[in-house]
Design goal:
The protein is about 40% helix and about 35% strand. It is of the alpha+beta class and about 100 residues long. Strands 2-3-1-4 form a four-stranded antiparallel sheet.
Amino acid sequence: MIIVRDIFQLQFGKAREAVALMKEGQAILSRMGYTPARLLSDVTGEYYTLVMETLFDSLADFEGRIATVSQSQDWRNWYGRFQALVRSGRREIFRVVE
């Protein structure tokens, strides 16, 4: 089992808008079998941080689902809207050991 965290640094003052839009994105992802486990926002650290955390059976499972998502026109249309709210981002992948 692995956990994937997509971490976004949002534009100043865009957190509410980004959370609402991310919920739309999660619905699109869910229709393609890429089901986000939870959405997190900052309490400490860098302001305007939004994290989408997702569980996968393996790296191969993650790679297969990402390939499917990247081919979706619905996802591309959504991502263009979301991208306008993001300053930067990164991905972290962890193997669950316990």
